[in-house]
Amino acid sequence: MKFLSSRRRHRAVRPLLLVAALFLTGALYTVAVPDERSSADAGTSTQVEEGRALFAVNCSSCHGLNGEGSSEGPSLVGVGAASVDFQVETGRMPLAAPVEQAPQKENIFSREDIDAMAAYVASLGPGPEIPTEAQYDPEGLTAEQIAEGGELFRTNCSACHNFAGSGGALPNGKYAPPLEGVTPKHIWEALRTGPQQMPVFSEEVITDENVRMMIAYLQSLEEEPTGGLTLGGLGPVSEGLWAWIVGIGGLCLFAVWIASKGARK
Ligand code: HEC
Ligand code: HEC
């Protein structure tokens, strides 16, 4: 084998390596890609199945076996994953018994369970998805943007939630809850899904950036409550009342003082 010099062998290695690499890539592709795809499919359909099972046990008595609704609860077709996330995470759902307005309570489900039920409800019809942090995180907004958030809040929300976000009563024993301590994600979800009497504020009306501005404004209220003094944070009404009491009280004292001076004369 004298004619096969080491130099020739060396040259033959390169194309061989290339063929081997191509073969390996091809093999990896056929193994990895369809595998990934099928596992992703299986993942979501298992999640939807899990959600369907959880829903049947916990929710179907009011919302129907296929989420179509009943006399006890509305149809959930098209309310979206965000609505399920909001309702379950704030403890409003599952409702224990029919009431005027589902109260907030301790959430009894794990993250996985909520995601599964949300995926199931989302599979019934398209609706708002659970937002990513970038959609609601108010980090990095300027002072002007926060002030604009206040403007948006006063225009769109204060009629029900009060200008300081401290909530208010609505007709028929219903109420708009105080917004202090509500998480940014739940604020986003409330806007996009419109629970109860609250209107839906869609992306076309109020962009995600607008929502972030309002969240930043609400957080700024929590940092420095309006009025400086603790007047209950109820805004102009109670502050006006306070001024009224102090003002009238002062006038009374003044009148008494004048009267006593007059009496001494
Ligand atoms: C006892 C009956 C009852 C049970 C059980 C119940 N719900 Fe509800 N659900 C209601 C009623 C009534 C409403 C509407 C009134 C309200 O929001 O206060 C509602 C509203 C909702 C909404 C808001 C719909 C919308 O228009 O955005 C969602 C989402 C929801 N329920 C999901 C669930 C899920 C998920 C479960 C199970 C974990 C569940 N519910 C269990 C009665 C029920
Ligand atoms: C027509 C009255 C009305 C208007 C306007 C309104 N809301 Fe609401 N909002 C409600 C009611 C009623 C609820 C309670 C829903 C429930 O309990 O199911 C609510 C609930 C909420 C919640 C959930 C609070 C919680 O404790 O989980 C948030 C957040 C919220 N609203 C923010 C806003 C913002 C921000 C705006 C303005 C863009 C707004 N709302 C405009 C009536 C209103």
Automatic annotation (TrEMBL):
GO molecular function terms attached to this record: heme binding; iron ion binding; quinol-cytochrome-c reductase activity
Membrane topology: Multi-pass membrane protein
Major location category of this protein: membrane
Residues bound to heme c 2: C157, C160, H161
Leader sequence segment: none
EC numbers: 7.1.1.8
Gene Ontology cellular-component annotations: plasma membrane
Subunit structure: The cytochrome bc1 complex is composed of a cytochrome b (QcrB), the Rieske iron-sulfur protein (QcrA) and a diheme cytochrome c (QcrC) subunit.
Protein's recorded name: Cytochrome bc1 complex cytochrome c subunit
